[in-house]
Amino acid sequence: MSGPRIALLGFSIECNRFAPPAGPEDFSTRCWLRGDALLSDARSDAPQALGEMPGFVARMDETGPWQPRPLMLAMAEPNGPVDHALFLSMMEEWRERLRTLRGQVEGAYAVLHGAGLTTVLDDPEGALQALVRSELGEVPFICSYDLHANVSDSNVALNDAFVGYRTNPHLDMRERGAESADLLRRLLAGERFLRAHRRLPIVAPTVSLLTAQGPYAEVINLGQERAAADPRIVNVSVMAGFAYGDTPFNGLCAVVTATHQGAADALADELAAASWERRHRFVAALTSLEEATRRALASDVPLAFADVADNPGGGGRGNTMWILEAFHRAGVEGAVFGVIHDPALAIEAHRLGTGARFEARFNRDSGQDPFARPFAAEAEVVALSDGRVAGRRGIFKGTTMQLGRTARLRLGGIEVVVIEGRTQCADPAFLEHLGIDIGAARCVVVKSRGHFRGGFDEFFDHERIVEVDAPGLTSPILSRFPWQKLPRPVLPLDSETTR
Ligand SMILES: [Zn+2]
């Protein structure tokens, strides 16, 4: 064996301050891999891990000899803050594994979503980065982030290159992993990188942060144009942040990695100014539930309705009933709803079997959840599955998903896919594997804020997507939340905000 020895690790979860805490099962059901299992997953055809680690490993494999030192990678569906005791036990495990590598590695790569919280910490990623530095010393260290990262000063200071996604939906995860590998190779060859970081008092609603069009796309594109024209610029990451993290360092920011400090500073300043110029365009424009119901009844063309306020991909529980209830009451025909998280109902449907008719009682165990209003309707079990689905399109393409026990129910003219697990409906395969023909539906309602766009784009273009204003943990109407830690004043919450 020859080539540089590289430590591999990661911690990836997006945490909504207002959602219930995440526990160990939230990681173990998605992706929690140690040692050789981390590496073999990254090299497999259908990894459990999202794209960064597989992209990094593939690029390192292509670009010369190296010796991977896989430690631990823990990823979960977005949720509430991670139980702090669980995070401490993870830190202890990373510490032990890093300690055995002290003086034994030439570099490190970490996959960090960047919008994590614990029930105690606002910046668990910063704590993990500090641990890597303290155990491994000043070896080249690269971290990659989701563009929804809330970027603390430590997140920028404690690594040598800062690599953030550039697409929303996130279709460039593998590319950013590969880019991280290329930058690590450059550092190993002796280059040194510097960084600049500018944060703005803009906490943008998630729906205003698409990268196909709109203000965020324009700033990202400007950064990429400048990077292409200046060889001193190594990476440009315009990070939108995740409002519901509710941290003191929330705010849209530009992070520039460069070989020259002046070049990094100048470009970061330019991108901050370009973002500020567009500040009044980072707003949500949603459709009321009444109007959405009217369009579902009357539209001549198939439509997709996004339940943006109950997005499991932002910590939502995937179980609110406002749209289903309204469409059912109005007698909407030819609608498909996916995917509703209701373990008790999914398990009951499996017990009753295909063909059974029963009263489907949603949210029977909703407990303290203020958004999980019960709803009941006559239903038929049309199809069942164990919920192991191969991601076909969009952010989950090529990955292996585990939805838990899954049932397709028919409620009058509406088909509903109910799952035991909790995940956002970002991939058509979640519906198709139960025999649903999405192309034949008059409307599709998804529990997803925006990642469904990368999966359902072959059925619905931008003009046929309706973002519905219903209550929920991920409502883009930010004035509805009891913010604790956001820096104030901030746009769009406080109109008097200045730079
Ligand atoms: Zn994201």
TrEMBL record:
Hydrolase among keywords: yes
Cofactor entry: Zn(2+)
Top-level taxon: Bacteria
Official protein name in the record: Microcystinase C
Domain spans labelled Microcystin LR degradation protein MlrC N-terminal: 5-297
Family assignment from sequence similarity: Belongs to the peptidase M81 family.
Organism encoding this protein: Sabulicella glaciei
Tagged with keyword GTP-binding: no
Described purpose of this protein according to its UniProt entry: Involved in peptidolytic degradation of cyclic heptapeptide hepatotoxin microcystin (MC).
Keywords tagged on the record: Hydrolase, Metal-binding, Metalloprotease, Protease
The record's free-text note on cofactor binding: Binds 1 zinc ion per subunit.
UniProt cross-references to InterPro entries, sorted A to Z: MlrC, MlrC_C, MlrC_N
Residue intervals of the Microcystin LR degradation protein MlrC C-terminal domain: 306-485
One Pfam family cited in the UniProt record for this chain: DUF1485
